Amino acid sequence: MKELSFREFVECRQAENLRLIDVRESDEFAAVHVRGAELFPLSEIRAGELPAEDERVIAVICRSGGRSAMAAQIFEAAGFKECINVAGGTLAAVEAGEEHVERG
């Protein structure tokens, strides 16, 4: 599993056409999330539900990086292409500036 800081993720997101999956719960996502992120809670992933795979590499984010690291490992074990853990998570996104996030 590859790991990028939030700033590194922002720098390569468009160029590499990364798909961002937020693995927090729906209430956390509704409060604040990175623009363009898809919600797919870790609780569902642990229950065996996985997002449909497409051609994009998946970047996984949570609040600070712990849950996303677990989800990335599950995705890779399930045969997904390379997965990237966004270290620092949504907290780092908020710190990077409001232009990176949407609030509920």
Automatic annotation (TrEMBL):
One Pfam family matching this protein: Rhodanese
SMART domains the record matches: RHOD
Domain Rhodanese: 14-102
Entries under PROSITE patterns matching the protein: RHODANESE_3
Classification via InterPro entries: GlpE_sulfurtransferase, Rhodanese-like_dom, Rhodanese-like_dom_sf
The protein's name in its UniProt record: Rhodanese domain-containing protein
Organism: Lujinxingia litoralis
